[in-house]
Amino acid sequence: MRSLLALSLLASSLAQAAGLPMQLPRNVAPLAESVELRINPDSQHFSGSVRIEVQIDTPLRELRLHARKLAVSGVEAQTEGATVQRGSATVADIDSVWLRFAKPLPAGRTVLRLRFSGHVEDAEPFGLFRLKDRDRRYVYTQFEDIAARRAFPSFDEPGRKLPWSLTLIVPPGQQAYANMPVETRSTERDGWQRLRFATTPPLPSYLLGFAVGPIEAVEGPGTERTALRYLVPKGRADEVSYAVAHTAPVVSALEAYFGRPHPFPKLDSVALPLPAGSFGAMEHPGLITYESNIILAPRIGARANFETDYVSTAAHEIAHQWVGNLVTMAWWNDLWLNESFASWLGDKITDQLHPEWHWDLYAAADARRQALIADGLPSARRVRQPVQTNEDLGTAFNAITYQKGQTVLAMFEGWLGEDRMREGVRRYLDRHAWGNARAEDLFAALAEQDRPELGAAIASYIEQPGLPLVQFRLDCSTAQPTVELHQQRFAPIGAQMKAMRWGVPVLVRTPAGETRVLLDAETQHVELPDAACPAWLQPDATGLGYYVAELPAAGVQALLASGLNEPRSLMRLLEDRLVLSRTGRVPLSEALALSERLAAHPRLAVRRAALSALIDLQPLLREQDKAGYAALLQRLFAAQGHDLGWEAAQDEGVELASWRALLLPQLAVAGRDATLRAQALALALIGKSTAPVLEAVAPEGDALLFDALLAQARSTSDRTERGSLLKALALFRAPALRERALGLVLDPKLDAHELLPELLRRHGADADARTALLKFLKRNEAVLARQFGGFERSKWPAEVASRACGAQAAEALQAHFGPDVAKIEGSAAVLTDSVEQLRLCGAWRDVQAESLSAYLSSSLSGEPDRKQSTKLK
Q: Mind listing the domains of the chain with CATH numbers?
């Protein structure tokens, strides 16, 4: 029930909101805050109170606090040695309230007390939200980025680090957990439980976290100083055994890297019953939350990449306990200090603990690829992007912040070396522990390990958008061989880009050795150590450079002829030739030929890169190209696919299982492999409906198969299995079945969050299906707005664009989403990026159409070579 106060505040609010900055004034500083909340998972209503100790610089009669969707009342202020003064709360804008007092509050320390009430969110996992699992309800928190203000009034900014004291009052029989251990426990007169948690070290509000409900706690082996525990929905304790066995080594490895123990007294890992891909994880100190798909193990064989997903995600989130929690960004423009670091270091730790996964190859290649796509748009933003509005903040959590920042850090580690990089990171933490830091602090700490200009070189990647294209030209016209380096901004066909210059750390390799140069001019000539003209030149000896390296075609052939066989270098060479085809500087047939060469490589990571390159080209295919494309897939990979088969061997490793999950559906669908499709259908009909099997059979499936999969989805209680089944329903191509799949979004007995994202991606790829999809979204706009929160809806343009290509798709996207972008924070930038991506893809397809078609036509004359089976080595 909304109070009369809330109604009156809402009515008077937004007229006075114009011009209020995101950040609260600095004349009032919070020193400590106590929060008490009364929460019942079976109710949408909650209530509470806060006690905030502040330091006031100069006397004032009003001050502003963050509060959103809260009814605030009972305002009191008490200064040292003074009586309590009552005040009032008035809405300042959508995110804050004014506290006003009849008499000025004097300079010095003051204690503010407020009561409030609010509503628990059901539409999305943001703020204080509810979830259901097996007919039981739970309440969880997700306060990053600016959602703590939805749960209690506060100074909701990352730079305001202070100790927090939390008390939760919950119904009998419910459990409650938070960042810190329980300090006291008592029973209220009405039987409710009062749990007071230990006061936290200094933290920003966005890192507070708690969970309430019929939660089961599973104890696990800890480290020397830190207890580890796993909090799961009731009845799911047996599904967390993998996490129990593999978390402590992650903590220990990170403690060793940072040279200091885990900063908090405990570490709980919480499973949120959410659809796969809807949340990810969040690094609350002492209380990391994961969508259940990541931490709760599926039935054997149901998801090939479960183990790698859990360990790499846990490594990312646990790394945050130092980088982000111990040392926190001063403001949201430096979000990358948290996320880039955790992504880079999390992957590093994953590879260290499980070298058999070859995670260094897969993760680095995937991160670089995602970063290149985002950074190749004219609208690409900086890693360190100014954040002055909620709209700015809505664009901050993307591939530029995560994957580009991660790739840049890996590149400079390759320049510095692992030991010097680690020393710089430790210096950064030592200087800013329990405080806040800015990008300049990291630049300075790393530059001390090398040369003063290194800081400027790192900043050139962080402070401006885009990435460099570096041309390498071997010059043997003089006695001493040299290489001419020329940098310019990478620009795809059809893109107008502002010129930029970077400090590019280049490590060139020739037969005589390696040459280091920090390229900060537009053109630079560098002497090579070779006494005679080198037979070949490798433009990035580390394979980690975040730049597109352009060698002449003859230089590429010479490099390959040299016997180059190192996986990372070959994968990098292929990626760069493919990216260069986007500029029109290299014919696409050259990248295809290189993919074909690498498809038979003995290392699985290289073969996967070759297949992934071909998959990336699927949006470019015209109808007349698809038969040739199928023939090419068959010629390169049919023998491997048929050797693998659909069912895993008992002792199969995760790398091979992941390869099967990628390769076989591609062969069955895009490769038109009738044998593999028939085998997959037989498995599906007897209930062995793994995600790869479903991906293979659903596109050509009929109504009987649709009904069978839907019946399985309705009957299973396993969220992972149900998610796979519902996603498969988005793959059916028959128009009538596509319509039925759309209609299931409105079925109250199904979770639309498990189905709609896949419908957006899959139906967005086809012109007719896209038209029907967009009409469905428009027709059901009001219903979907109640089912999905603003953050989820802001990403819809990107989902629809993810597998599409061309101006027609771009126009459809703009026409549908354009009129409504002002209603949803962050959606304007997402739409701009998505439309640009589609237009540039169309320009790439137009320029390379002849080269692509000619190459694929030649594949039609060949036959699949089943003799060239390539076993994993």
A: 1-211 (2.60.40.1730), 328-462 (1.10.390.10), 468-589 (2.60.40.1910)
